[in-house]
Task: structure prediction
Amino acid sequence: MPTEAFGILITGAGGMLGTDLVRALENDFEIIGLDKKPAPHLERPLEICDLLQERKLREVFMSRNPGLVIHCAALTDVDYCEDHAEEAVAQNVEATRNIVTICNDLGIPLVFFSTDYVFDGKKKGEYLESDPANPVSVYGRTKKDAEDHILANAKSAVIFRITWLYGVFGRSFPRAILRQIAETTKLTVVADQIGRPTYTKDIAQALKVLLSSRRDKVFAPGARIYHLTNTGQVTWADFARFILERVGRDDVTVEDMTSDKLNRPAPRPANSLLNLEKSERELGVILRPWQDAVAEFLVELEEVRKAAEAKARAKAEAEGASDQG
Ligand SMILES: NC(=O)c1ccc[n+]([C@@H]2O[C@H](COP(=O)([O-])OP(=O)(O)OC[C@H]3O[C@@H](n4cnc5c(N)ncnc54)[C@H](OP(=O)(O)O)[C@@H]3O)[C@@H](O)[C@H]2O)c1
Result:
């Protein structure tokens, strides 16, 4: 039974961050997970609704009556966004507008996740929340437009800019590296971008702590931005080397490459380092070093893989037994 009196509606609940938010908060709060499609890995029913269907969305809000909305849903494939700008604007900006309108009408505070991609990455040193945004990709522009809409219109909202996100469920850099080393012992990885890998579970845990000890900060009137990432810094190439070391694959070599050789549709910022002092000072939140989080993630990923294998084996055995019976 949830211990808290209000429910939390999580959009994109079946996605990478949404999944860990549901898991982190479900013991304390009634969770209303919402997504476009069911998420079997969550093993719970979701409200199936496209955020662009405003009338249906409003009906969900009215019937479930959440006390807080955590808006994770977005079109997050950066290269796809670059080639499908109209769709990216709809999913990332118009959908957010719908959420803001309904939250304002019903007096519900909002938590929104944004990204380092709102910056051009040219700054020497860490980006402050107050630094001017200058996105260099369609995805970054849509997230900035969503931020701007929230800052100008939301009655109560917190925007967390997060970076280089990875989690057990969903697509991410560490999972791509693990997939590649199942087939090759030679990797070529970008070495001219620097940032902070951030574990979805750590973001979810930070939200949980905030909602238990600093709730006033989340529910305050007005809208504000905080940077929230794991600490330390690394390039993608060294991030790959760290993963290889942790999984004991010293037979795999990583060759450095420059971003321009990658030929991807969307440019990425070279510097993704976000200054974390404001969230530490005002929210009392500081996340652990990225290396500790990645080490734990790799262990958890392996546990999830083994559990899925065991489940599949048990299912096959049960089916075999019933065939014989
Ligand atoms: N991933 C990163 O590296 C990263 C970095 C910085 C910030 N962020 C931000 O963090 C948040 C969470 O990212 P994530 O990587 O966890 O996202 P994700 O795994 O892509 O999950 C997003 C979920 O939202 C759903 N969704 C998208 N549009 C929707 C709509 N119109 N109506 C209902 N559901 C919709 C998606 O469904 P479909 O899959 O069917 O579209 C998906 O299940 C996003 O706001 C993202 O911009 C992510």
User: Anything to note?
Assistant: The domain at 7-171+197-231+273-289 is CATH 3.40.50.720 (Rossmann fold).
